[in-house]
Queue: 3 jobs
Job 1
Amino acid sequence: MKLPQAVEVTEVGPRDGFQNLQTRIQTEDKLCIIDGLAECGFKKIEVTSFVHPKASPQMDDAAEVLRAIKNKYPSRFKCTILASTLSGAQLALDLGADEIAFVISASDPHNLENTKNTVEQSLYALASLCKIKGKALVRLAIATAFSCPFIGVMPSKNVMRLLEAGMTAGADEVALADTLGTANPLQVESLLDLLIPHYGNNIVLHLHDTYGMGMANVITCLNMGITRFEASVGGLGGYQFAPGAAVNIATEDLINMLHMMNIYTGIDNDKLISTCQTVERLLKVTLPGHILRSKRTAMIK
Amino acid sequence: MKLPQAVEVTEVGPRDGFQNLQTRIQTEDKLCIIDGLAECGFKKIEVTSFVHPKASPQMDDAAEVLRAIKNKYPSRFKCTILASTLSGAQLALDLGADEIAFVISASDPHNLENTKNTVEQSLYALASLCKIKGKALVRLAIATAFSCPFIGVMPSKNVMRLLEAGMTAGADEVALADTLGTANPLQVESLLDLLIPHYGNNIVLHLHDTYGMGMANVITCLNMGITRFEASVGGLGGYQFAPGAAVNIATEDLINMLHMMNIYTGIDNDKLISTCQTVERLLKVTLPGHILRSKRTAMIK
């Protein structure tokens, strides 16, 4: 096995997790959780998304969240914001976002459903964004990179084409998202075989654990030289909250596996597990992460 | 990635799953579940264990279960029985067991706790068993092969030594059990690097998913040429039933990943998922497998 010495994990729970909760989360609770995550040592946290409030009412306090975070932590960690329109991204940049994850699906029908734009329209917006991004980093977040509810298994060449177009439009890097959680290690290897020779250092993986293949895909990625992943605290954002939503890999499970294999992450995993407990208390949820489940068991014992 | 064309999965739910349930399971319910599993196409099912009823009251109908199964299915699948004493194994052989999984821990303190014998005493019993096994196959099931609650991380050389002693005693093959679920892919690779040159074709892996590393370990094993695994229907046997117990890999999650990578198993996974629903209904449990969780979500939707 060929493992890297260090891996960068971006915490996306405050965006990918919160947005899937149906119960309203108070802004101060969001900020408290982000405080907890900052203490764990993350260098990047995806703190919110600037999308239409109708599409994601949970995120209608995005400006307030970003403003408060940038005010409290001007440089402790990079604030990533998800956006799918130029106007949303521009607003985030104006408020000091360090990175924009600009989401485009690998298939037109899913992009239309998710963003109300064709892939071509989204690419045009991405190009416009890249002209005004200034010092901020723009990451093309490719949704449905492995499968799509409308077209099924995603052909690797569709992803390659979108990636090329995005980089030509000026994106700095790419995140490949297994939106439905159907990616298997062989498919991951096959797609990365195609992309790594061209974009190796610029690829981030956003894997889900819907069918239990998330960590198997992580190992496959590590073996191929991928060193950047996104994950969600406690596995927040998933089945028990928003029916049908995919399950994020739990950040603390990922960090634990990396640390057990002597891979440096810079994250204090004990603090992260404490933060999971804060999340459960504030949001009144039971998180699905494996370590948390085993801890609950030990407590019952 | 170097994947095998076919993998053999042994279903161990009726032993490893049932034994961890605190509520009494009726013998006819056990037989009904084993019927369902037989329909799925398994070539080997671990149907019960012949251990002292005080140690595992749930298994005090072992003789009745084995007799009924061998009567109904004289040759449809191989009946594996777990035992930790010569007398238990002998009784199982007398009733027609096809395979004995004879469990010995890689460390003395755990073996004493689990079987009331030292490792040396267990090896002596194994040697006696191998003399009377006749046509039956004897598998040395090494518990705590990766870590032990008493000594911590298990040195690979301890496992190697026990395996050598077991094979010298006459065992046909070995199962390596990640009893506590702490094995990580690097440790799995390291242990298999040591064992495969000597015992490659005779190694079965029994992995747990307690900390979310089960499927990552499966991929590592496949890459190293391992083609035999044990798993439990729905992930039965674990945290929500018996506090502190480790979580088995869910058989249907494993089969799904293998099939998605075009690896033949001979199992009808749709039937297996239906059988999971039978298990949930009869045992009044909610199984933790990933596919089952995602199905429940879809139903809520």
Note: Residues 8-300 of chain A form a domain with the TIM Barrel fold (CATH 3.20.20.70).
Job 2
Amino acid sequence: MTGLDLDTARKVLDSQPFSRLLGARITAFGDGEAVLEVDVREELRQQNGYLHGGVLAYAADNSITFAAGTTLGPAVLTGGFSVQYVRPATGRTLLARAAVVHTGRRQAVVRCDLLTVGEDGAETLCAVAQGTVLSAGTS
Amino acid sequence: MTGLDLDTARKVLDSQPFSRLLGARITAFGDGEAVLEVDVREELRQQNGYLHGGVLAYAADNSITFAAGTTLGPAVLTGGFSVQYVRPATGRTLLARAAVVHTGRRQAVVRCDLLTVGEDGAETLCAVAQGTVLSAGTS
Amino acid sequence: MTGLDLDTARKVLDSQPFSRLLGARITAFGDGEAVLEVDVREELRQQNGYLHGGVLAYAADNSITFAAGTTLGPAVLTGGFSVQYVRPATGRTLLARAAVVHTGRRQAVVRCDLLTVGEDGAETLCAVAQGTVLSAGTS
Amino acid sequence: MTGLDLDTARKVLDSQPFSRLLGARITAFGDGEAVLEVDVREELRQQNGYLHGGVLAYAADNSITFAAGTTLGPAVLTGGFSVQYVRPATGRTLLARAAVVHTGRRQAVVRCDLLTVGEDGAETLCAVAQGTVLSAGTS
């Protein structure tokens, strides 16, 4: 019981200037899970027109942290993560779906799927990530 | 011999809209190494005033890719990377120093140090990363 | 269609002296998935009586490689993997369940759950991994 | 100041049945660094005669943990690591050289080079790793 809900998570996300710069929104938060969305726009691309890997890495990092916040509470520090890209990312919206696979008192381990949603609503997996988040409360 | 130099690398970076949004510049490129810099500004922060982890992840991803480009040539695909954060990032400028540890015909493995430079010029390590970049030319 | 089946996979595993040293067996192989099992015995422990992390890392590495073999064929090279331990491993048998999340012509990305089975048959998650396997055939 | 020295580290390694099974020895320990060695023998190979990736993963895991022990003390838990293989491992002896890149009160981040030493004494890089070790004392 962390006392956090989707409204609180939205306020935290909105208090991150970098998340506002990217236009990220959080659409699910609770029970070990968090979903972050970023609408694809020109400014987020790389030189070949695909979504820049750095945007996917941002979305992995942040969705992993939020998912861990549902079990560890608001005071968390992301320890790190690993991301593997599986195909170039195109589409209308990037979705980062993160889910805690194990949580203890001190840390949570979280997996994340990064998908894009096309104009037709079809989802395509673009990258997978897994990371570790530490509770800052016990530091 | 990839035929790439710092000027070419700057043009590639400048052709990435997301790198322009972040204000990234490349200050070294060659012989298995690349250095990317991002000046810290309000828009790149998270809610506690530190540089957002997603900015560090972007800088890791992109500097690793550029370093691999010095050995694999311009047609590369980043396979993925792992990043571990070691302390909250503050300072004036973020530096991502990437160096190839091994390159073959098909892929390069690259390590990256992420540091911030303070107002006094002192460098502080904030994160370390390691990743894999594939040559797209042989696919 | 790789022309591989569980019998062939068992022969490959049996031709790995290190897998015989550890007593590994493969119990499922096909359609992007592989399951590797190792019975826990004294020789596989660390100093506190838990299964050594190196045994889990071996099982992650090898099950990821076999799972990729179901889609890429027998000539594969494991590029690397990331493993996060979530709790000390005890029990009767270690299970490594690997599943391909994406496969292309040149590489597969694979996730793996590492669980132990207790005396009562209950499964406990001990670690999670994700890795990349390259097709050696196109090199 | 952890009160640990090379003799103590050797005793800890010798109290790990799995490290004895593999024939590992520790040849350096202190000041954020640890070196683990494993002589290559038939039992440690995979099907093509190379050292099994699981042996390299074991050596990465264990040398990272020992290196962290020089700064965090004896009560540590390895959180996880990422390993990238750069070439098939052959030679006489495997060397895992681990060095702490940052240590705090709660965790250390460690990098590791995995090399083989040939009959002629030449060293060849086979894999690189980076991992995180938690202090168990504050849990």
Note: Chain A has one domain: 6-138.
Job 3
Amino acid sequence: MTPKPELTATLLFSCPDQKGLVSRISHFLFERNGNILDLDEHVVQEEKRFFLRICWDMKDFTLSPQATIEAFTPLAKEFSATWQIRFSNQRRRTAIFVSKHGHCLQELLWRHSLGEFDTEIVLIISNHPDLHPLAERYSIPYYVFPITPDTKVEQEKKELALLQQHNIDTIILARYMQVLSPQFVEKYPNQIINIHHSFLPAFVGSNPYKQAYERGVKIVGATSHYVTNELDEGPIIEQDIVRISHRDSLDDLIRKGRDLERLVLARAVRLHLEDRVLVYGNKTVVFE
Amino acid sequence: MTPKPELTATLLFSCPDQKGLVSRISHFLFERNGNILDLDEHVVQEEKRFFLRICWDMKDFTLSPQATIEAFTPLAKEFSATWQIRFSNQRRRTAIFVSKHGHCLQELLWRHSLGEFDTEIVLIISNHPDLHPLAERYSIPYYVFPITPDTKVEQEKKELALLQQHNIDTIILARYMQVLSPQFVEKYPNQIINIHHSFLPAFVGSNPYKQAYERGVKIVGATSHYVTNELDEGPIIEQDIVRISHRDSLDDLIRKGRDLERLVLARAVRLHLEDRVLVYGNKTVVFE
Amino acid sequence: MTPKPELTATLLFSCPDQKGLVSRISHFLFERNGNILDLDEHVVQEEKRFFLRICWDMKDFTLSPQATIEAFTPLAKEFSATWQIRFSNQRRRTAIFVSKHGHCLQELLWRHSLGEFDTEIVLIISNHPDLHPLAERYSIPYYVFPITPDTKVEQEKKELALLQQHNIDTIILARYMQVLSPQFVEKYPNQIINIHHSFLPAFVGSNPYKQAYERGVKIVGATSHYVTNELDEGPIIEQDIVRISHRDSLDDLIRKGRDLERLVLARAVRLHLEDRVLVYGNKTVVFE
Amino acid sequence: MTPKPELTATLLFSCPDQKGLVSRISHFLFERNGNILDLDEHVVQEEKRFFLRICWDMKDFTLSPQATIEAFTPLAKEFSATWQIRFSNQRRRTAIFVSKHGHCLQELLWRHSLGEFDTEIVLIISNHPDLHPLAERYSIPYYVFPITPDTKVEQEKKELALLQQHNIDTIILARYMQVLSPQFVEKYPNQIINIHHSFLPAFVGSNPYKQAYERGVKIVGATSHYVTNELDEGPIIEQDIVRISHRDSLDDLIRKGRDLERLVLARAVRLHLEDRVLVYGNKTVVFE
């Protein structure tokens, strides 16, 4: 196998479409001796908006990470772009929120232990103590913040303080059964990833398997999306489905859905951590 | 290959669950020298309701079709069953309703020509003349009933008269873009099969691909269901999906969806024509 | 939800097809006051062979388990049937064989802890010590039998002795990288379940992902089957696939395949443990 | 919707990987006022080979098509590239080969009539007269060249003459049941698209459904690939699968497979016609 490069950079970039964007940006890298490892671009025609992801090898690149960002800023400004460059040695710092269902948490921790996720999982927050043993098994600190309607505002403040103290930049809701307040969500725009156990926009809200069972659908789904202030309405990152039949009881739906939730959330998390997702409006461009 | 039996009978049967149902019914057939070719049963536990489909060979059966029904009636009454027995020489008589999109109609006519559907396709009704040439190619009579809000009641009456005159018992809405009135629907309970171009219950109503495109889903679907008076709310027979990405324009969704609609409708029609679908409440038991 | 019956019986039955089989068998149960919970039958037409699975509630049944088997034996003999009746309080006793890859083992143990598998997992056997900690986490005894070409015969004898001592009746090869000898396999006919990491019969043998990568396929698969003396040729229980593209490296195939192996093996194990699989020749009837 | 550009160009390009490739090529276009509509690149790491597809709008481009190719040639030479530029007004000229099964031909002709394929379908060649009526319906000339072992060499020569006379550049084998000779195949390298009715490399050769049925697989597939001199071994463009069960007879496999063949071949043809497929060795890069 080819050895992995030691240090890479990944640019996510979007701006109004115009001629010469690829040329200018790839030239910027070429001039500085950057070797492009991966490049994806897309133009949303209705909105004439350009999206780009470039990953390059920093070996032999003539600029340091810091200098790279400084050098790129004027170019990005010229194109009125929204952009970020992340270097592979800047690992994301992730917090996972859970309630009582452990399957998504276990899946994430197991995959992380195999090296599938390029992040540090710094801590786990829950409104229940139930999954503490699972967290311990993987030696991840586990904090319990019980939530009632009365204490919610207060508890969220404590959670935010904890997250800031640990420089968390990515939050995964792994079947966290609380709705986060707008004050919380606005602190992490497009950085909170949720798994909803239905094929959105079907079966928004609570008990989607029950809703699906009662409607008599022949397929159930799961959807991973960024959290916004509209419940289950945020930009969708990934979805998948599984067939069911009249033979499946509600319990069977829950069991089959469990497998789906695990896989869909894991895929979305991986796409996010590899900087493959760009959000525009309420939609995503996913460069797989 | 094994030769197909000349004459078969198919019983669809549902009743409150109780002990001895399979024994009594299979004994009924055994006594009369019937050879069971296929048997499926299911009990919906919450409702304690029993569903059965039995298909048997009429060769060597000691009763004629007419006598079979007479002999079975008291047994069915004893169990307070909803039931039907159809013999393979009683081909269903089908009408297809279309508007301007020809892909579903073409798929149905082509499959019919290959012998996939055990029915006579008696006639095609449309509110537009556009698909007349396609109907002609397969030598099926094509009737045009233009519909406006003002003429709808009148035209539906004419359509119903035509259907009755031709002893139609099955209606397929192959992208028919009109909503049938309750007066029409009640004449054909669980006999009108529709294809909706979304993964119901997501994207009810018009322009589902546009709705899907704007929501930014990663999967689109199609749903075939029996028509009831609630728009797109009838019992679902079959669903399927196809993955999409940000690269797919609205036109691509329509193109990919076209393939899905064809297949999902064809599968639902086949299931219905083979007497594999039992309706209860707003759900179906599909014995595949 | 409906409460689960306390004690149930499941009959798996196959014999040359003839009239009256369902009637005779269902009558046998009805006479003894058995309530059928689930019934599936199938006839393989080319071979005129009949397959049946019936599950019934033992509550109110007039015979004890022992007496049930005695009473059923003459009926089965009359039809020259191959059959078994298992009662829900006779839990299967399972051994899992592993080498160094832990993902399948972890999946099985986790699902077992959730109650998805109706068996006791009695012990784990490996030719390597690597997965001992995982076994310990679930408190399952873990035995290491290192295998070399020279010691294989000897070691298999010890393994067999251990299995017999613990009354093992089901063996799962969860990525066990050794080929079992014919002497071993014949002790457990259709009781050893393997997972092969390809879409059989494509890519038999070792390194199937490498074979798939080099062939340039657009889909990879996994296959769970019963072990016979022909390598990767046993009766297939379950298969599934995942799409890949030119973007996927061999490492990506291995990663994506890992998810597939876990799910396919888990489904096959569940089907086997619920007595849903009947083998004939080199094929299976799977009553889902 | 955004209006489609009047004239576009598509470059397919591959060469040994090196720094600056994207920059140099995108700069070439930018200098000449080309607006990039779509760009995809990929590097096969093991072979250090670079693959690129760029599609750009020729409106405002400063060079004519002819001049574009002249200007690009030195650049391509410098990189030792394999390449082609095709302009959207140079429609491919396609011949379809068939035997007696009409489903793939009908699918292709129907999709072509909807505008899904950017090609002229110039003629149809068959070794049997059966599908002449279908060809007539779409007004495509249909030529019959009966093939026997004795006449094969002779007939292929006549076919080749016909193809050359009509400037055919793309050949689709839509269930053509003859193996083309090496002399034939070498005239159209990576320009002959075949559909094989199995999940290659499983079930090479004749009667794959029968092979699949006898092996007892739970999934059947279809594979579209470029034809080479190794039977069913050419570079794979597209594959897909459908689930089957013990309930499916060989006839059912053939019926379900028919749907699959149609879709898989249609997808592969579309990918080829849109210049989305690059071949290297026996594999493909498919820029979807």
Note: The interface with chain C takes residues 1-2, 19-24, 26-27, 29-30, 33-41, 43, 45-46 of chain B (CB under 8 Å).
